[in-house]
Amino acid sequence: MRVSKFPLVFGFPLILGACAAAVPGIYTEPKAGFANISSQVTPAIGKRTAFAETQAENEALKKQVHAMVYRKTISADTAVQVALLNNKGLQASYANVGLSAAEAWQQSTPENPIVSIGILGIGAPELGAYRAIEGLIRSNVLDATTRKQRTAIADANFRQAQLSAVNDTLALANQTRKAWVDAVAAFEAVSYLRRAKATSDAGSELAMRLGETGALNKAGQAREQAFNAELAGQLAQARLSATRSKEALTRLMGLWGTEVDYYVPDALPALPRSVGRVTDIEAKALRNRVDLRVAKLGLEAQAKAFGLTDQTRIISDLEFIAGFEAEREIEDGETETVTTPQVEVEFAIPIYDTGKARMRKAELSYLQAANVLAERAVNVRSEARGAEASYHAAYKIARHYRDVLVPLRTTVEEEGLLSYNGMITNTFELLTDVREKLGASLEAANAKREFYMAQADLTAAIYGGGEGGGGAGGEGATLAAGGGAGH
């Protein structure tokens, strides 16, 4: 019985197994796909990223982050680097790449055959303890014939997951850079409002004393006091906004505990002397945008899925079943074992589901992916043009405030002080000039903030990471730490 058993049970799956291709090493290697992600991120934003899979790796990254931020005034570049090393959402995105690699590995591996063995007539001693043994092995034929197509789909999904992770990395870098700009600009506004409040306090105190002497009526006193009260509210609101902005930056960097004891500069860096035009920005965006490449891979995956659906349109499940039945019989006191081979083919008869619905779904899925790619290409071009226009316009506006409005308000303030010293003008006119000059400074600071935001958006429009894609980095001036003690 043994001699006839083994060839029948194991022969067929060995034949199918011979058709299986070797599993590509890229799917099975540690941190599969991460090296490709890192190689695309660094040239775009000039920062490194890391994927921590073990406790030791996490501890090493934590020490690096602590050294970069603890009680230090951080620049935009430092904030971005910390986020790329420490943001747990980004680590989850990298883990998803590993999941897609494992799926590709799974699809490239032959399906395990199913073996079933049954024993009949146990406990019948007159028949030699058993009457019959039945063994079957079931193997899906379509698993072998469609493995190449399924592996190709899984590989496209793996490559798409890598690009999505690159996109997520660039997006985080861009968000962190803009959050740093927001936080620094908020603290810069606080410093201007604090100075304005000091001037207003002096004016309010003077108005109160003049009112006591009768030199200023109640309306004049109330006017100065109301302005002082309004300014106090604006200063409190600005401080709250600065706290919120810094907390948003802290979240993106993934900091907690003692690592939150860091500072940002008191003011944004000065505007660059000039900004140049980006030549062929549409072509650069079409060539570099990661989200566009993700859409292309999505179309490729749908094309492969369409081919697999077409191949299995009529018969979607075909199984080959091979085995034997060994039956023991006793006749005239002699025992005889009869072994009978069995071969079965099992498949669904396409009476009702002829595969037309699945083909229709595959066709529409491909059409959907094609339209998504076309729309993405149109949007990429538009985002690139709009980002460049905003970048240059924001620079001109910021320079206008810096070079025209603020100097004029400074001149008015200085001339007012000279007139006050010569007893030509009164104190309240001088205070008004000071307040207006500080107001112009606030507007100039906000215009500078808009420029650096536009600078980040321009880089995102080329590489990705903005609202439509991913990426940060920087063409044009690079943000660095401003002066001051920081917050």
UniProtKB/TrEMBL annotation:
Which residue ranges run through the membrane? none
Q: Where is the signal peptide?
A: 1-20
Q: Which UniProt keywords apply?
A: Signal
SUPFAM superfamilies reported for this sequence: Outer membrane efflux proteins (OEP)
Record bears the keyword Transcription regulation: no
**Carries keyword Disulfide bond?**
no
| The protein's name in its UniProt record | Hypothetical conserved membrane protein
Query: Whose protein is this, by species?
Result: Sulfitobacter indolifex HEL-45
